[in-house]
Amino acid sequence: MISLGFLILGLNFLSYQKSENERNNQTQTKNVFDEYCNDFNKSYHSKQEYGVRKEIFLKNLNAINKHNGNNSETYKMSINQFTDMTFKELYDLNYPDEGESSSKMDTTKYTSPETENLLSDSFEENVPDSFDWRNFDVISNIKDQKLCGSCFIYAVLEEIESQIKIKTNQSYEFSRQEILDCARKGYGSLGCSGGSLYGVHSYIKNRGGISEEKFYPYEAKENLCRSEKFPKIDIDLKGIKIFDTEDEDILKRALYTLGPITVIIDNLHDSFFRYSSGIYYEQECNESDAYSHAVVIIGYGSSNGKDYWTIKNSYGEKWGEKGYMRIARNQNNHCKISSFNMVTKL
Ligand SMILES: *[C@@H]1O[C@H](CO)[C@@H](O)[C@H](O)[C@H]1NC(C)=O
Ligand SMILES: *[C@@H]1O[C@H](CO)[C@@H](O)[C@H](O)[C@H]1NC(C)=O
Ligand SMILES: *[C@@H]1O[C@H](CO)[C@@H](O)[C@H](O)[C@H]1NC(C)=O
Ligand SMILES: *[C@@H]1O[C@H](CO)[C@@H](O)[C@H](O)[C@H]1NC(C)=O
Ligand SMILES: *[C@@H]1O[C@H](CO)[C@@H](O)[C@H](O)[C@H]1NC(C)=O
């Protein structure tokens, strides 16, 4: 079995130089797609679906190769679990159309736990040029939300886990599924169709804690609420600190002072799903209303004169830089990285 890393490299090099004839060579494309299905455990219900998925995959593969052949780009793309899906499917997964409530990343209309708006003068002034919370052993393993719009749960729980680790040196992995199942009515959650960051906090605050992943594991779909069956870890959430200054310098100081920070970004670009390495910069990542994806910022730095943020995503380890993305920093609030920032107060 050819290794995935080699496969990607091989494709990027080979298919880019192929003639149209060779590119249409059915034997070859069948092999490439079958390799993909094998590597990513893809199986389809019917021959028809196989055909449709294969066509989508080849189209995406072509775009990936084209991007990677452009040396002006600051990042690379690769095949991953999304390569057999259309952008429309990915868009709907992240940003489902639910009629009356247009934004699933609802940040305002929810009754929230006590919040505290911080003034930037409470953050460290002198911060290093680069910083990474992974070096302090407070960041847990990369997880995979799978094909369920539960990023809001992942981001908030990971940030709370980090805050607890910083404060008490205790490591927990809380149950994402409990929030998915139990924090629906009254918490602004639509399960796998998205939900409110505040709602996750409110749920934990009202319950006084949450159960652990090892007892109540993730199923990537909504199910009956079973919270009472499992032991609960007590958590006393004091509130949330919000800063939405659109000032990346304040965000940098806040990250250094407070710990990992939950942010909502605009990820509604096919390039985001195809990202594999380097510093992500998407020309079209500038729309004013697209708050579509919650992630956690864990660090920042510069590479070859380009500043970046490091974000921890929940698309598994095969996406991006082992599950992380470096994204352009000090480029006009790229993808709205400093437009909605939130950190838990314990
Ligand atoms: C198609 O690809 C296969 C496998 O690489 C190769 O053996 C065959 O000669 C190719 N056929 C054409 C017409 O290029
Ligand atoms: C595919 O399944 C195998 C066996 O269950 C597992 O080891 C592997 O990590 C899976 N691959 C992906 C991409 O999920
Ligand atoms: C290569 O990338 C640069 C930077 O994104 C872009 O401006 C340019 O249009 C691209 N070139 C091609 C041939 O796509
Ligand atoms: C924190 O916990 C880890 C093990 O989980 C231990 O190795 C380390 O010494 C602890 N650090 C402090 C400061 O207590
Ligand atoms: C975003 O960028 C694209 C491409 O550069 C441009 O066409 C579009 O008008 C921009 N949108 C906004 C809201 O600035």
Could you characterize the architecture of this molecule?
- The chain is α+β, with helices and mostly antiparallel strands.
- It folds into two domains: 4-72, no CATH class; 92-345, Cathepsin B, Chain A (Alpha-Beta Complex).
- It has ten helices and twelve strands.
- It has helices at 4-14, 20-23, 26-39, 47-68, 87-94, 151-168, 176-182, 197-207, 248-258, 270-274, and strands spanning 75-77, 115-117, 131-132, 209-211, 232-234, 239-243, 261-265, 275-280, 293-303, 306-312, 324-328, 341-345.
- The strands form two sheets. Strands 1, 2, 3, 6, 7, 8, 9, 10, 11 and 12 form a ten-stranded mixed sheet that branches.
- Strand 9 (293-303) and strand 10 (306-312) form a beta hairpin.
- The protein is globular, with a radius of gyration of 21 Å.
- Bound molecules: 2-acetamido-2-deoxy-beta-D-glucopyranose (5 copies).
- One 2-acetamido-2-deoxy-beta-D-glucopyranose binds next to helix 3.
How many individual helices?
Answer: 10
Overall tally of structural domains: 2
Helix content: 25-40%
Main sheet properties: 10 strands, mixed
Mean pLDDT: 86
End-to-end C-alpha gap = 48 Å
Contiguous uncertain segments of 5+ residues = 1-18, 98-104
The 3D shape can be described as: globular
Would you identify the CATH H-level superfamily of the largest domain?
Cysteine proteinases
At CATH level 2, the architecture of the largest domain is Alpha-Beta Complex
Tell me the radius of gyration.
21 Å
Structural class: alpha+beta
InterPro entries: Papain-like_cys_pep_sf, Peptidase_C1A, Peptidase_C1A_C, Peptidase_C1A_papain-like, Prot_inhib_I29
Signal peptide: 1-19
Domain Peptidase C1A papain C-terminal: 127-345
GO molecular function: cysteine-type peptidase activity
